[in-house]
DNA sequence: AAGTGGTCTAGACCACGCG
DNA sequence: GCGTGGTCTAGACCACTTT
């Protein structure tokens, strides 16, 4: 009898494992499966959705790839703190180390403006037609400014989010928990350049000293929504780190 | 009856999908499944190994993650050109674009020396005890020197490979095809620094102009073997690119 | 129509972690 | 010893691509 259910499963775009995957992801994003806790066992999930372990495991495998959970044999599937950053460039000391005091200050915006021409990537037609939301942040380590960061996104794709609403100062965390939007990938261009007068002033360094400039486009799970960034990093004391595993 | 076979499958460390995965990977590395060709169909592989599609698909899934193949629904599993570079930093234009003429020249070694203290990562005890193989390369784009690259690895882990033996000038390709060693991941530190006299001379630029310095440790599938790198990049005309997807 | 990969069922035994 | 995730069998139907 339950085979009739099976017949229904192969339907157009109604993949059962997607349903399970989306359900669990949303519960993680809204904190109903808190960070550090364990998901219900695979067999329990089978019961909840009337399916088999093969299908449940496929859903969990996807969440594993997305970085929401990790698996511990003999124990269960644990909800992870943050998404595992795969290849994301991070300032040494940012996120993780306790030896550093980290602070982020929003110095401009968010406000609606025209696109800024410094962006190293070509905008889509839809983005060109739209205005954009812009904001600027300065990141501090041990009370010294280390990164000056400009960000833009198309204002027709996402409302202006006030900086007061940033969860723990993080724009991405806000996107995930309040809008269910996730970062799917990114492209970056890195250059070594002399510091301009404005950058030098913001980072408290000499004009012309070597600065790492990063231009980045983040792609998100919301089609058409990209986040563009323009970062100026003083790497003298805190180099940029990037680790990845296959 | 055939269930008795199932009983045997769960054995210690003899995962059937690993056997299949290793077999296919080795055939790809040695060119028996040439780049661009299609693997035998999943059902054929089932026949060859006396197993079911679930197991074969698990093996192919792993090869997919490792970047050796891609899947095309309705057609088959295709052998990929190179391993998909996940988060690897590459000079814009290197590997892929036809607009650039790329050349690599080995300027020093390979030869056996002492470890160089510039390496930003701490060596393992085994590495400290061993001498190391060192070589230096300069990478050109359109006949202009763009990257000066120093490399080291522990000489007790891998014999000295003569630069003449580098397949297409690539050390990693040589490792894969002749030694079945793959890169499993890497850690990198990036800094923006003024060019030293030696770097300036090698890259044909002014002493003191901003240079991107990358210190990298590649981890390989051979336990204990790491490859260390020390790169100086002139990013004025060719920025460094880094893209990744989840 | 035939062949390929994608999804799914309904079981089974194994290795691991913990009380 | 029991529950958890890890591996595997032996089938089935679906969607996509090509002949």
From TrEMBL, chains A, B:
It comes from the Bacteria. This is Transcriptional regulator, GntR family. It comes from Kriegella aquimaris. GO terms for molecular function: DNA binding; DNA-binding transcription factor activity. Keywords: DNA-binding, Transcription, Transcription regulation. GO terms for biological process: negative regulation of DNA-templated transcription. Residues 14-82 form the HTH gntR-type domain. SUPFAM superfamilies: Chorismate lyase-like (SSF64288), Winged helix' DNA-binding domain (SSF46785). Transmembrane segments: none annotated. InterPro entries: Bact_HTH_transcr_reg (IPR050679), Chorismate_lyase_/UTRA_dom_sf (IPR028978), Tscrpt_reg_HTH_GntR (IPR000524), UTRA (IPR011663), WH-like_DNA-bd_sf (IPR036388), WH_DNA-bd_sf (IPR036390).
